[in-house]
Amino acid sequence: MKPSAKDSAKTTARPATKRGAKGTARRALARGVSLSTKLVVLIIVLLAVGTAGISLSIRQLVSNYLMDKTDTQLISQADLVFRNTDMLQGSENQNSMTNYYVKAYNAELDRSTVLLQPVYKDGIISSPDLPDNGDLDGETLGVPFTVDAVVSLKNVQKTPDHSTLETAEAPWRVVAFRWGKTTGTTYEDTGIVYVGLSLANQIDTINTLTKFCVLVGIAVVLLGGVLSAIVVEKTLSPLKRIEKTAAKIAAGDLSQRIPTEPENTEVGSLSKSLNTMLSTIEQSFKEQEAVTDKMKQFVSDASHELRTPLAAIHGYAELYKMQRDLPDALERADDSIAHIEASSSRMTVLVEDLLSLARLDEGRGVNATQPIRMSSVLQDSVDDLHALDPERAIGTGTLALDDADGKPKLGVTPGPLPDVTVVADGTRIHQVVTNIVGNIHRYTPADSPVEFSLGVVGIDMTPRDMSKLKPNEQSLASIMQAAERYKLDRAGVQYAVARFADHGPGVPDESRAKIFERFYTADPSRARQKGGTGLGMAIVLAVVKSHCGFICATETPGGGLSYTMFLPLTQDFRGAAPQRDAHQL
Question: Transmembrane residues, as ranges (predicted)?
């Protein structure tokens, strides 16, 4: 019964599956080996292959050299040795010439005669395996060739040592040439002469050299392995430090940084990239934590602020229910309804401010595409404040950079407001100015003077970088330094700068940095009496930052509080960033 195609496929697939499983297991085993081990093993393998290749090359080179030397000696001395065999056999130098073997074949007599035979230690005789009939067996006259040795132990009286036997068993290098005699002017060919030299010394030299190369190769491999392990361990030590640092970072310590190395190295470049990434991640986590903390505080403060009007509404509603059957109930009802209406109005304002902040936080609610005359906006605020506080003295002027005393600052020249136009959201800019003026009206005496000033200043700082500054005096000092640099190199951005300075009670130093925090008021009870929600200046900060500007509060010389605001004249720096449509407000 023949196996089906399906059974054949199964039979074929099984070995393939086994091979695939073995290959996967080998790859998994290789992946489980550390990088340092792989490098050391690779170096050892390369050293072993290199030393083996060098040893074989040296062995072959020396063997060829010795063989050429032996051939040259045979060719140059063969005839001389043959002609002096009688003298060599009977001379005192016979022992020094026993390496030569001479055998002559006489064609007339059809007989071969050994003319010179080397004798080794203990009487061991070694001779080349040559024919007795003068046959060359395919070899060429005058060209050396190699033949095996024939060892004779007939005259040996004791067991020979191993080294002597090895020497005797070494092959022979033989050269053959014709010999004859000259009668008068006639040359008669007599036969063939074989002259040979034992290769024992050559083989011994090659074997000694091979052993030496093997020992040196083993020493090189071992020493190279030890040195490579040390070098690899030292070279990979930065990676070990990176690994330890990564483990600490994984445990939650984002302040860890990779030890720096020269940036022209791979490890140094990797360390710089990782440190940059870690700084970004740490900053992102800090910002996220700050946002989370602000959100928690915001929810807590919003709940607290909403609880107050809700409690008032609930209390007056209960009071109305309790007193509606008593005499003069209608008058008491009107009073309760008035309080409920006031509380609901305050809650409405609070909810609108919260909604406005939420939109600003999401990047919505601003359409910074309208040309706005800042001088008109500030002049309208001057008129509004004059209408609210007719007795208040309101001054105006031009704001410009002043470094007369060596320290850059903003100086005011009294006079009308200069004509300055910015590309911004007109509604939001009016809201910013209105909130600032409203604070001046609520929290400063009605007869205290106020100065509004406006100008244009060049600053060596991008709007995006400016929007990241914290609203404090240190950031304002940095901006003034950037404005001083702009005067020197004329590289930077033009900003509209406005200042609102009052001479009221001011704000303590420790509280000025908190003015722009949500629901922050220096005196909460007084703020409620004045109708504030604690969100006005937070909205001001959010609107200014949405325009990539800057605002901060500083002390007015002579007492009071000053708000300084910077807005870029144009929004060209936004590039191709999409602008939100007005209907998204």
Answer: 39-58, 212-232
